[in-house]
Structure formats: C-alpha cells, structure tokens
Specification:
With 438 residues, the chain is mostly helical. It has one domain. The protein is 77% helix and 0% strand. It is built from 19 helices and no strands. The relative contact order is 0.15. Keywords: Cell membrane, Membrane, Transmembrane, Transmembrane helix, Transport. This is Gluconate transporter. Its main location: membrane. It is found in: Cell membrane.
Length: 438
C-alpha cells in the first residue's frame, strides 16, 4: 500500500499542475499534505514536516540560487557571456557548439556542485542560443548532462564522496572509474540525444537574455572568463587545499569556510561587481538594480524548489524509502544491478538523488560484503541509479523547466529522458567495466 500511496500522491501532483492549472508551489503544498495523511504521518506532525523540508532545501540553495542569478544576470548584461560565446564559437564553430557545451559542463562540473554549475552556466547557454539563433534546449542539454553525471558519479560531490566512505572504497579509483564511465555516458545523453531536441520550443527567462553589444563595449576575454568562472577556480583551489592541508592547521577552518558553495558565490559576485561593473565605470545603483531584477525573475523558481523539498521531506518522514528498499532486498540479481535498481526506485519515488543513494547504501552494504564486487563500482552503480527519471518531485526538474521556460510535456521529453539515459548508460558502463576488470 505504501508504494500505491506514493504513486497516488505523484498522480495528484501531476493532475493539479497539468489539468487543474494550479501554480506548482501551491500544488506541491497540497500534495505534500495529502501524502502525509495517506502515508500515516500524525496530523500534528505534517505541517512541521512540510516546513522542515522547505527550510532544509532552501537553506542549502537560497544563497546559491540568488547569488548565481545575480552573477548570471551581470555576466549577461555586461557582455561577458557574449564575449565567452564569441570565443567558443571561434574555437568550435557553430556546427560543433554543443560539443563545446559538453566539454564545459564536464570540466566545470567536476569541482562544482550541480546547482551552482546550473545557475552559473545557463546564462552562457542562453547567450549562445540567442546570438546564433540556435534552439536553447539543443545547446543546453549537453552541458546539463555533463553537470548531472559529475554530480551523481564523481567525488568530491556529496553523494559519491559519502558512498566512498560507506563502502570503504578508494576515492582516487572511484574518480578514475567514474570518469571512464562518465565520458561515454555524457556523449550519449548530451550531444547525441540533443540532436533529437532541436524542435522543442523554449523561451528562456528574460533576465538572462542580454542585448547584443558592439565588440568595443564588451569586457576583455580574460576578464569575461575570470569573472564568470571564478566560482570554479575558488572551488577547485579550496578543494585541493582541504585535501592537502592538515586539519590541525590554523587556517584549515577558514579554508572550509571559503570552500562552502554559498560563500564561493558571494565572493565571486563581489569580485564580478568590481571587474564587470565598477571597473567599467558602471554606477553602484545600476548594478544593484540589475541584481534586484535578477532575484525577482527567480523568485517563483525558489518557491517551486521549496515545494519540492516539502514533498521530499514528507516522503522521507513517512519511511517510504526504507519500505521500498526492503521490498527489493531479496531479489536474486547481480549485486551491482540490485544496488542500481533499489536506488532508481527510491529516486523516482522520493526525488532526491542524494537521499536515494545514501538510503540504498544502508540497505545494500551488508549484502555487498563477501560477494567480491568492487566497492568502487558499487558507488558508481548507486550513483547511476540515483539519476533515474527526474520528474515532478525533483528540484532539478523544476529548475530546468522554469529557467528554460518549456512546457511540462517537453520537460519530460527532454530533461527526464536525458536523466534516464544517464542512469541506464551509466549502469551499462559499470557492468562493462566490472566484466573487463574482474
């Protein structure tokens, strides 16, 4: 009955949004409360569960999304994104620009948290799409596929890093195996799959759409790349420092502080305010006006993500993840396939890749010991399953839909299918690597 109630809750969410045309944030609240009653959460605890879910998710994302929106708006408005797009087009040409997007997403995605990479690089996608009259979804999907794969497969992202510790795997080997599997997975889910998406209509948010400027008014190439990609530089450098510097070193706590994605985005925005604003003789009032407009344009996205967090928390508090995992535990299949399947089912029901991965780890760990399966491949199998079919209960689904401004139907046809391709091809890569190495 538990799984049936989860399916009914998801169906209700779909009907409220698609059929009743209710605002997704309100639909999430209604669905979360309904799911709480159906799944047996005490009535007096449902509101607290909803509030906790919204607060926890926004606590992680609010600085990243708002600072990222401000930085993205500034990069677009001041011509930095146009300069970067011109540079990429000269290197790859219009015909191969989607390969440039894939490479950018892969390189940037390794050290960058998914949500940071999304809000940072999406303005670049839109600038390329508008300037060269290319479909935004076609241009953006290779980049988003790369960001998604690195988020699910590769340390130091939270879920893979935690799984490495839980299975006593080797961080370096997991990263090496992960990159081997990630590259072909991104190729299939990104540049190859994106060829089928050229006809999907998309009208991206106006806030990231800057008018084409004369070349003499654009910032320099170095300034543009530096200002837009400073978060990447900061995250890479602080990550390396945290691995190299002993924890009893006096500056270690400050390195950890600066390495927080929210702090990285704040520092990067302050630097860009100078390099793309004050340095180019733009008044502070004009810069602040840009930031106000940027936040207004993403306010509904923030509310929708909060709603997704509420539903996720209700499902977690009801114990549905454990019920699903327990029901699949006795399957007589290969341990890697079992790990992937349990994770994929939990991911589809709960929506959070991290929750799905860590929940599966607690169930599958006792089964893995003694089977001879490489723990590094277990981490990657779980990582692949955690990306399975992103839909209405996943914040990433709504970020993509709202930023690219596409319909629910087209979001499923593009984003959800892309995530499914990543999960399936990722499992195939894990099994192939297991066959080759062992």
């Amino acid at each position: 009955m538990t799984i049936l109630f989860v399916l009914l809750s998801i169906m209700l969410l779909v009907l409220l949004i698609v059929w009743a045309k209710i605002n997704p944030f309100i639909a999430f609240l209604i669905t979360s409360i309904t799911a709480g009653f159906l799944l047996g959460i005490p009535a007096q605890d449902i509101a607290a569960s909803v509030q906790k879910g919204m607060g926890n998710l926004l606590g992680d994302l609010i600085i990243i999304i708002t600072m990222g929106a401000m930085l993205g708006k500034l990069v677009a408005e001041r011509g930095a994104a146009q300069r970067i797009a011109d540079f990429l087009m000269r290197i790859f040409g219009k015909k191969y620009i989607h390969w440039a997007m894939m490479l950018t997403g892969l390189v940037v995605g390794i050290p960058l948290f998914y949500n940071v990479g999304f809000v940072l690089l999406v303005p670049l996608v839109f600038t390329v799409a508008y300037q060269y009259k290319l479909p935004a979804v076609f241009v953006g999907m290779p980049l988003l596929a790369a960001l998604s794969v690195t988020h699910g497969f590769l340390p130091p992202h939270p879920s893979p890093a935690a799984l490495v510790a839980q299975f006593d795997a080797n961080m370096g080997l997991t990263l090496l195996y992960g990159i081997i599997i990630a590259v072909p997975t991104i190729l299939v889910a990104g540049p190859i799959f994106s060829q089928m998406l050229k006809k999907i209509p998309s009208n991206p948010l106006e806030t990231f759409r800057a008018n084409t400027k004369p070349k003499e008014e654009l910032p320099g190439t170095f300034n543009s790349f530096f200002s837009a990609l400073l978060p990447v530089v900061l995250l890479i450098s602080t990550t390396v420092l945290t691995l190299q510097v002993p924890q009893d070193y006096a500056l270690y706590p400050y390195i950890i502080f600066v390495s927080d994605p929210g702090m990285v985005m704040l520092i990067s925005l302050l630097v860009a305010t100078f390099t793309l604003g004050l340095k180019m003789e733009v008044g502070m009032k004009d810069l602040m006006d840009i930031y106000v407009v940027a936040v207004k344009d993403v306010s509904m996205i923030i509310l929708i993500i909060a709603g997704a967090g509420a539903l996720k928390q209700v499902l977690m508090d009801s114990g549905v993840s454990q019920v699903i995992a327990d029901s699949l535990e006795g399957w007589d299949v290969h341990p890697l396939v079992l790990a992937w399947t349990i994770t994929a089912v939990i991911r589809v029901c709960v929506g959070s890749a991290t929750v799905a991965g860590l929940t599966t780890a607690g169930i599958i760990a006792p089964l893995i010991h003694g089977t001879g399966v490489d723990p590094n491949l277990v981490v990657l199998a779980i990582g692949a399953g955690s990306l399975m079919f992103s839909h209405f209960n996943d914040a990433g689904f709504w970020m993509y839909k709202e930023f690219f401004n596409v319909s629910i139907k087209d979001t499923i046809k593009s984003w959800s299918v892309m995530e499914t391709i990543v999960a399936v091809v990722g499992l195939f890569g894990v099994m192939l690597l297991d066959w080759i190495l062992f």
